[in-house]
């Protein structure tokens, strides 16, 4: 596994119970290994407000040496001096994204072997695979694939895999056991104590 995928925190203001900057700082104190700015969905900031929050979160990551990824939005990648971008199957084509950002890390979401077959996954640096468990953080989440789904994708690709979807302290063991990285929204952003929440996910 690529080191930064070990405990990869994803969040936007819509996921937080308190100030997103404090949430990110506390998550970093707990030991997250990467951060993805995913300002998206109901109650998410847009336009200049989104960019400004992104800049503040980016600054925090830079100060602590945490890789900073942008979800989907290729328009703000340069402005936020992102280290990488994460795209889904319905976003801009990965071939175009790779041409635009030859030197950045690119993550690609894949849910099934079928999606793998129709994707230029070889252009990505890692695959985000899930939802491994049931999630409430994504309205249009695909069907749950379980640990078997993770194993199926791992068996077909030479890329590092980070699992996503419904991962929390009670089920994380199964994900760690198959050697996948872990990405999490609500188990950290929805916690009153993000630092302790991360510590419980880190082993
Ligand atoms: N993609 C697949 S599931 C998911 C995304 C963005 C949401 C994960 O959030 P949580 O709260 O960790 O289940
Ligand atoms: Mg997307």
What is the fold's blueprint, element by element?
Elements: E1 7-11, H1 20-30, E2 34-37, H2 47-64, E3 68-71, E4 84-87, H3 94-100, E5 105-110, H4 113-117, E6 126-129, H5 146-154, E7 161-164, H6 172-177, E8 181-184, H7 186-189, H8 194-201
Helix pairs in contact: 1-2, 1-8
Residues 130-131, 135, 137-138, 141, 164-167, 184-187 line the site of 4-methyl-5-hydroxyethylthiazole phosphate.
What this model shows, in words?
With 203 residues, this protein is α/β, with parallel strands linked by helices. The chain has eight helices and eight strands. The chain has an eight-stranded parallel barrel with strand order 1-2-3-4-5-6-7-8, surrounded by four helices. The model has no long low-confidence stretch (mean pLDDT 97). 4-methyl-5-hydroxyethylthiazole phosphate is lined by residues 130-131, 135, 137-138, 141, 164-167, 184-187.
Task: Output the keywords.
thiamine biosynthesis, 8 helices, alpha/beta, TIM Barrel, binds magnesium ion, transferase, binds 4-methyl-5-hydroxyethylthiazole phosphate, thiamine-phosphate diphosphorylase activity
Q: How many β-strand stretches? A: 8
Give the name of the CATH superfamily.
Aldolase class I
Share in helix: 25-40%
Q: What structural class results from the helix and strand content?
A: alpha/beta
Average pLDDT: 97
The profile of the biggest β sheet is: 8 strands, parallel, barrel
Our measurement of the CA-to-CA distance between the termini, rounded to an integer number of angstroms, reads 14 Å
Q: Which strands sit side by side, in order, in the main sheet?
A: 1-2-3-4-5-6-7-8
How large is the radius of gyration? Answer: 16 Å
Element-level helix/strand string: EHEHEEHEHEHEHEHH
Instruction: Give the low-confidence spans.
Output: none
Bound molecules: 4-methyl-5-hydroxyethylthiazole phosphate, magnesium ion
Function: Condenses 4-methyl-5-(beta-hydroxyethyl)thiazole monophosphate (THZ-P) and 2-methyl-4-amino-5-hydroxymethyl pyrimidine pyrophosphate (HMP-PP) to form thiamine monophosphate (TMP).
GO molecular function, one term: thiamine-phosphate diphosphorylase activity
Family: Belongs to the thiamine-phosphate synthase family.
Pathway: Cofactor biosynthesis; thiamine diphosphate biosynthesis; thiamine phosphate from 4-amino-2-methyl-5-diphosphomethylpyrimidine and 4-methyl-5-(2-phosphoethyl)-thiazole: step 1/1
